[in-house]
Structure formats: structure tokens, C-alpha cells
Give the backbone structure.
Amino acid sequence: MILSRGNLFDVSHKIVLITGASGQLGMEYQTAFLEHGAKVIGIDITKSTGISELEEKFNKDYCFLSCDITLKDSLISCLAEIKSNIGSPDVLINNAAIDSPPGSPMEETGPFESYPEESWDKVLDVNLKGTFLTCQVFGAEMAKNNKGSIINISSIYGLVSPDQSIYDFRRKKGEDFFKPVAYSASKSGILNLTRYLASYWTKDNIRVNSLTIAGVFNNQEDEFLKAYCKRIPIGRMANSEEYNGAVIFLASDASSYMTGSNIIIDGGWTAI
């Protein structure tokens, strides 16, 4: 394939499906693609106020569908509706994920030895099984069409262990707080699922890559920000829009020779 140098990053002809649409980064990714002329479908269990604003602003190019990515039948119904009303997606961004952030029930953020099995199952069900099922349903459709780009969102905690010292300030207050294990395990699984699918679907002209990201600023408490930013070479958390360039790149022809790869954008976290 010979690419024109003038439109390498053009996504205006793409139909882009984004999971976790109501979340902070889901909103960013959707807005970025819409502003670059793509047709976008956002899926999530719940519909946020931001989604309603996107529907109003980009009504002809945007569609939101309620869908549970942990249920294959829900995804199959979602695909059927998308094909009927818009067309088959060219790009799939598996962004949906859950975690146990500060403020979660004590049993979810306590020591590993007492981490609840049901919490493990819940996180793995969304983050890893959900990505597996979404790839299975929408990737199969891409294979039929002999084209597609799948972008799986991972995390620095899928590459390296969480730095538990960041939470010393909580333990000094008497809280038995640790970053839980399930999120890390799920995001590590995303990386090898990506490699597996990249090699499996190469014959069908589907590229599968991952994007590994670091923490995003969202008005976290000052003590956490101080500890986190001290640990990261760039000295701050990411702004939510700073990952948009990477997903546009991976969705576009600019990355046409790229599959099975992992882009790391982490402010230098994994460099030290």
C-alpha cells in the first residue's frame, strides 16, 4: 500500500467504536475523533451528561449505545444495531476499565492477603474478559471486511508493579491502604492479548496494538499528587487530552506498518 504523505493521520473516513464512553478518557477520545471528522460510536453501561453534550454537538456523526461488555449477547446486539444504522466499525478502542481507587471500601484497598475474591472477579470481568469479548465480536466483523485497527488501553501497572510507597501518607494516618492487585493483573493481560490477536488476525488485515498510559489528573487529593509527581520524571500527572495523539496515530494510516506493538506514554515512569 502506497500512502499519501498529505493525509497520513486522516481519520475522517473512519467509523470508530470506543468502550468506556462515559469515563474521563472515553470522553476525550470520542471528542478527538469527532473533531477530526470521524463517525464515532460510544458504548457504556451508563450515559453521562458529557455524552448528551456530544450527541447535541455532533448529532450526525455521533451515536451512544448502552452495552455491557461483559455479556457477549449485549455486544452482539450492539454490533447489529451499529451495522444497521451506521456501518461496520473500522476502529475499536477498548478503553473500558474499572479499578479500586482511594475511597473504595476498606476491604478492597487493604493488604493483598485479604483482598476479596469477588473484587478480583469484578475487575478481571470488565478489564480483561470485557476486552476479550469486545475483540471477539467486533474483531470477527473486521475480519469479514478484511480491515480494521484495534487499540487496547493498558497501564503502567500492567508493565511494572504499583509503587506502594506513594500511599505511605495514608498508612501514616492509620489507614491500611495498598494499591490492589486486580487492576495490575488485568492490564498485564491486555498486553499479551494484544500480541496474540495481532499475530492471529494479521492475515485478515487487522492491526492490533496497545497504548500504555500513566495516571491522569482528575482533582486528586494534594498529598497523593505530591507523592505521585515526586515519583514521575516529568513531574506531573498527564492531562486527559495528552493521549489523544496516540490513539489518532494508531487508528490512522500513519501506523499502517505497526501491529502487536505497545506505545508507552507515561511521563517517564517506566524509565527509572
Q: What stands out?
A: The longest strand covers residues 148-155. The beta strands are 15-19, 39-44, 62-66, 91-94, 148-155, 206-213, 262-265. The chain has a mean pLDDT of 96.
